[in-house]
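User: Can you predict the 3D structure for this chain?
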Amino acid sequence: MKKLFALCLLPLCLLLCACEADAPQQEEAQAELLIGFSQLGSESSWRIGNTLSIQKAAQEHGINLMYDNALQKQENQIAQLRSFIAYQVDLIVFSPIVEDGWDNVLTEARHAGIPVILMDRFINTADDSLYTAYIGADFYMEGVRAADYLLEKAGQMSKETINIVEISGTEDATPTLHRYQGFHDKVDRDPRFHTLETISGDFLRSKGKECMEYLLDTYGDEIDVLYSHNDGMTLGAIDVIQSYGLVPGKDIIIITVDGEQAAIDLLKEGKINCVVECTPLLGDLVMNMAEKLKAGESIPRTTHPQEGVFTEFDDLSTLPPRGY
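Assistant: Here is the predicted structure, written as structure tokens:
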């Protein structure tokens, strides 16, 4: 009887041992993914929408997120990245405030075996292996789209010379550099266009207002076109244009970049002529790439979201709410 009992227990013991042996592998497979996310600031509705998109997508994908806001200071962001490294996160995602000055901290991340995804902005480095991928807009093409609209609009203006003022973003930031280059690579070849001045508004509404005050005080009715690198600065500039007794969208043609709801509303009212889209809704793209990296899969070096352009020539009646 004892032998029979022992024989009956043997398969059960073997099954339990097998389950115990498999348990660590199952736990490893189900281990949660932890991302350290450093946002450069909260200077605009676009940036706030971008943060919310990342946070929402992380929750929907069941991914843990360590979030920090650099408040527009590179030294804050470098400290945040070092904090993520010390915490041994699985992945670092960040939007670099400027392009230069990241080699040391990203080398530390590489030594710690932590991959890095750049979101929304690039870095300037001689060692491209310091980051795994870039996810975000094609800023050069945004500048090109702005120029394409202006070329179309110029055909209706019947003017030999069209004077442009430009409010650019933060100096040395990727969107600033590329939106400038894409725009000028096209308009500077056309003898009708003359850029009176380019001035930095740091992607801030308050500075957009200050820049427009200076530009109107300096050039007055010489200005035909305002090309602004983001909606926040554009909204500040429009406040000033109206305070000077001018009609935005008519007395001054206005081209802006981002596609916030406030800018689309003004486009519909005729106070903005062209909105070049730059979507902040990158959360799902980032989380999908993070999951692939965690699974040991390769991911594209560069991923751009689908974006377009909205102009006064379009039917905007069916355009859905922007969500930011």
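The mean pLDDT is 91. Residues 2-29 form the longest helix (28 residues).
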